[in-house]
Write a structure and sequence with these properties.
With 117 residues, the chain is of the alpha+beta class. 20% of the residues lie in helices and 21% in strands. A five-stranded antiparallel sheet has the order 1-2-3-5-4, covered by helices on one side. A hairpin with a 7-residue loop joins strand 2 and strand 3. The chain is globular. It starts with a helix and ends in a 13-residue tail after the last strand. The chain binds adenosine monophosphate and zinc ion. The site of adenosine monophosphate has 11 residues, from loops.
Amino acid sequence: MNDCIFCKIIAGEIPCKKVYEDDDLFAFHDINPMAPVHFMVVPKQHIASLAETDASHAPVLGKLFAKLGELAKSQGLPDGFRTIINTGRVGRQEVYHLHVHIVGGPDQLGHMLPRNK
Ligand code: AMP
Ligand code: ZN
């Protein structure tokens, strides 16, 4: 946990482009955006991944998901967005602090569609 890059961002020890902060949540732009708008929303509490959650995390996860639409609109995504959560090795998670990617922007999501669409 001490070595967690997102915990350090939340603590202000590593700079970021902040989108939002409250008592439980923190949101910031991805350093390597895959679309015109790409930010991440994380719980301030260190939860390694979606595979590590249990019922005790339900309040903060509920709060996080209930905030996504408002944050997306605040970042200029009124027509929708893609929500991505990578989990574990198979999910190709790189940073082990649970985060939800919000990705959007006009006509920028075609390359991310599943192959059969
Ligand atoms: P993943 O764990 O696969 O969902 O991906 C982690 C994401 O964190 C990647 O999209 C990175 O570009 C992003 N990232 C890594 N370090 C930073 C940082 N210091 N500031 C902002 N985004 C970061
Ligand atoms: Zn962390």
